[in-house]
Amino acid sequence: MKKMKRTLGLLLVLTMALTLFAGCGTPGASKGPGGGAKTPTDEGAGILKLTAGRPLETLNPHQQAATTTADFLNLVQGKLYRFAPGADGVGYEIIDELADGAPVQVDEEGKIWRVRVRDGLVWSNGEPLTAEDILYSWQMCIDPQLLNHRSDAFHGSQVQVVNALEYVTGEVKWEDVGITLLEGNTLEFSLILPVTEFMLKNFLSGLAVSVVYPPLYEAGMNAGRTETNYGTDVSKMVSSGPFVVTEWVQGAEYTAMKNPHYLYKDRIWLAGVNTRVISEPGTIMQLFETGDVDLVSLSEADYQRYREDPRVVEVPARSVQRIVINLLSTNKPILQDERLRQALYYATDRATCGQISSSLPANYIIPTTHVIDVENGTIYRDTAAAKAVLTPDHGYNPELAKKLFNEAMADAGLDKLSLQLDYHEGVEARRAVSEYLQEQWRQIFDGRLQITLQAVPSSQLAAKLRDFPNNVNAFELGWTGTGHDDFDPVSCLAHYYSKTDQRKGPYFSNEYDALYEAILKLPINDMQGRLELIADAEKVMLRDASFVPVTQGVELALISDRVKLMSDGWSIALGYGWEWAKIEE
């Protein structure tokens, strides 16, 4: 429990730091290339050496699902805008990357915006990168035949493009979607809901709306145009961001080197970034201590050794790890009983799960990283409305759990119940927590609930959870964690909206849908109204218990002395900001 208190204390520091930089680091004017007194060389200097616990999934931003894949793709994908360190490494700014200047509001409401694309842009192969390429990328992202993992990009948040959802579902043609290329390389957006300039810039800095190289995307299409092999190896994609993918040994390692054609190359110090796929913590620590790795996550034992080391950093995960319950199951119809699902929720000792996995106990849905008010940096979870949603003792109430379980079992005419829990293969913390819950639930329910465990590769597990529209018995219980836009808590709620496609697990609630829709209709400056409705929606989801939130990860890590971050430490806006880092040998 001491560790949990230390973790919560450090998270409070992170929250305070965010408040400070959000106040003084409100997006400033883009400095453009050549802003520093000293500039890096064209080839850069030093290779940043990282590790990942899971293999790289894809080089196609439309198909990305895992956080580690997103971290790498953000280094090589060009976007209209990008978060960068602020002046002297304090706070942040949003630079115009592929865009030529800030978005221009056309109407009074904030529903029509125009963004001009820069002239003279090039891909990493030296060929021209045009506004037409960007438009093509977006059309393919939400193509109704491809059904990409990120197909909700233009309708799954506050930034909702007119007819984007209808295009994904095949109800309208692309010409009906509210994205138009005007003369002068200008993209016009027609939105369903009003947005601010920051909201649109933040949205257009996202990985899902980055650009793909049209010739290779087209060349990789199958005959029915239902699939493309774009991004399945290095030769089947072209980079456009700060770095260029140069090597991908699938399942082993991947490398990106500095892009000599990148617009802000004079702000990129690194020669490259190499990531090796290693899941064994002890091996990574050995490599860190020999100087062969620049970042290592700390176990509790390691933290005790390094707790006074100034290189220690703490990073909260940007999603809540949860166990999805298949409430559509016909093989196990008792899962449709809300009391059974609530029993699992209340039978989960999150404090112990957090200790086992070095994580925060999470009896909530929206993580601690989500900002409700950008202007003053207010974190949603720090508000009174969000705190009121939480149940005592992190939601752990074994007596209530047993009562609900017995009632559901009696009405179902069952004496015993067996369920399979699928967890991520190769993720030690997930296995350990699963084994603990397997035994804990057995004891709480007097041996009447038997949990069998099944390790499943990450991509296959995600596919199982999303397959419920086609197979109502695709899974029974399954672990997942879904990242969202940290500057928009509503984006977290969008994942559970019944009209959102590619959801990980079924959830259907008219009450929840009505709350979600009401949030989107509120004026964007009605912060209190949005806050109250968001809290109400979270409360409804927790009551319906279509999944069991368990933990929010917290990474305790060491960064090598040779790595200098160009920002003021880790932040919600920049993360580590690896693309801006510098190696000092």
Report on the structure:
This protein is of the alpha+beta class and 585 residues long. The chain folds into two domains: 31-278 and 560-583, Periplasmic binding protein-like II (D-Maltodextrin-Binding Protein, domain 2), CATH 3.40.190.10; 318-553, Dipeptide-binding Protein, domain 3 (Roll), CATH 3.10.105. 30% of the residues lie in helices and 19% in strands. Mean pLDDT is 90; it is low at 1-37.
Task: List key phrases describing it.
single chain, 585 residues, alpha+beta, D-Maltodextrin-Binding Protein, domain 2, Dipeptide-binding Protein, domain 3, 2 domains, 7-stranded mixed β-sheet, 4-stranded mixed β-sheet, 30% helix, 19% strand, disordered N terminus
Q: What secondary-structure arrangement, pairings included, does this model have?
A:
Layout: H1 2-24, E1 47-52, H2 67-76, E2 81-85, E3 92-96, E4 104-105, E5 112-116, H3 131-141, H4 164-168, E6 179-182, E7 186-190, H5 197-203, H6 214-219, E8 243-249, E9 253-258, E10 272-277, H7 281-289, E11 295-297, H8 300-306, E12 312-325, H9 338-346, H10 350-357, E13 359-361, E14 371-373, E15 378-379, H11 384-389, H12 398-412, E16 417-424, H13 428-444, E17 449-456, H14 458-466, E18 477-480, H15 489-494, H16 510-521, H17 527-544, E19 547-559, E20 563-564, E21 582-583
Parallel strand pairs: 1-10, 16-17, 16-18
Antiparallel strand pairs: 2-3, 4-5, 5-7, 6-7, 8-9, 9-10, 11-19, 12-18, 12-19, 13-19, 14-15, 20-21
Helix pairs in contact: 9-12, 16-17
